[in-house]
Amino acid sequence: MSIARSSVIAAAALLALSGTALAQARPDGAPRNIVIVHGALADASGWRAVHDILSNDGFHVTIVQEPLTSLADDIEATKRAIDQQTGPVVLVGHSYGGSVITDAGADPKVKALVYVAALQPDAGEASGQLLSKFAAPNDAMRAAANRATTDKYLFLPPAKFRENFAADVSPSDAQFMADSQQPVAEKAFGARVSAAAWRTKPSYAILTTQDHMVSPQLQRWMYQRSGAKVTEVNASHAVFVSQPAVVVQVIETAANPTN
């Protein structure tokens, strides 16, 4: 390799590193790190549009690929992602991911929490306990439970996925989400969170009024209890796919609360 080529590669690497540093640290101390935790019956791939907008706006984005094998495993996966960040973090959770960030968000790096059509339990509460408080339209989670695998992992039948999870997403995108959905261990919904980070940290919430997975009534009840700053959106459970710009706006508000 020539000296000139080596110099170009080294310069490019330094530029990339400096860009990451700028994204992770600001003189005013506002978070530039966004850690996103996807929900059950999904994976990280659906967050591409949100990731790209945030990245273009100068944020450093990490999307946790949870195993969905247990609540404890998912919390640990999220904590590992938080540990990798330099500087303060905004922690985002969708659906069941809200239970994960409620516990993992106790980390001192986490400065704000964003709940996207998400569960928001108190300490000692379980995801399934909350879901049973208000039945979601179509009772989609019951349908998933009825299709549990022999080792008790829940999934939505692909033919029913769009109407329950992503009614406002294009048929092709909804089909991809159905085909790439990640089953979740039934026991994850029975596990109780040990901490409620929203009790000591600011929380923001996106309430999806056309949600067939997490009841809008339940969302409103949880977010009123916590005092979260709520943005109501006429969207399905897959709002992060159908309206990524709205989701980004709430995340960026959490990162820059004085703006």
Question: Compute the gyration radius: what is it?
Answer: 19 Å
Total DSSP helices: 11
Low-pLDDT runs: 1-25
For the record, the CATH class is Alpha Beta
Give the overall form: globular
Oligomer: single chain
Mean pLDDT: 88
User: Could you give the count of β-strands?
Assistant: 8
**Major beta sheet, specifics?**
6 strands, parallel
Based on secondary structure, the structural category is alpha/beta
Strands ordered across the widest β-sheet? 2-1-3-4-7-8
Share of helix, binned: 40-55%
Looking at the structure, the CATH topology is: Rossmann fold
Number of structurally distinct domains:
1
Report strand %.
5-15%
**What's the N-to-C terminus distance?**
48 Å
Provide the CATH superfamily: Alpha/Beta hydrolase fold, catalytic domain
**CATH architectural group:** 3-Layer(aba) Sandwich
Walk me through what this model shows.
The chain has 259 residues and is α/β, with parallel strands linked by helices. The protein has one domain: 3-Layer(aba) Sandwich (Rossmann fold). 42% of the residues lie in helices and 15% in strands. The protein contains 11 helices and 8 strands. It has helices spanning 3-24, 48-56, 71-83, 97-104, 127-131, 140-146, 158-165, 171-179, 216-226, 239-242, 244-255; strands at 33-37, 60-64, 89-94, 110-116, 153-154, 184-185, 203-208, 229-233. The strands form 2 sheets. A 6-stranded parallel β-sheet has the order 2-1-3-4-7-8, sandwiched between helices. A two-stranded antiparallel ribbon has the order 5-6. Strand 7, helix 9 (216-226) and strand 8 form a beta-alpha-beta unit. Helix 2 (48-56) crosses helix 11 and helix 7 (158-165) crosses helix 8. The protein is globular.
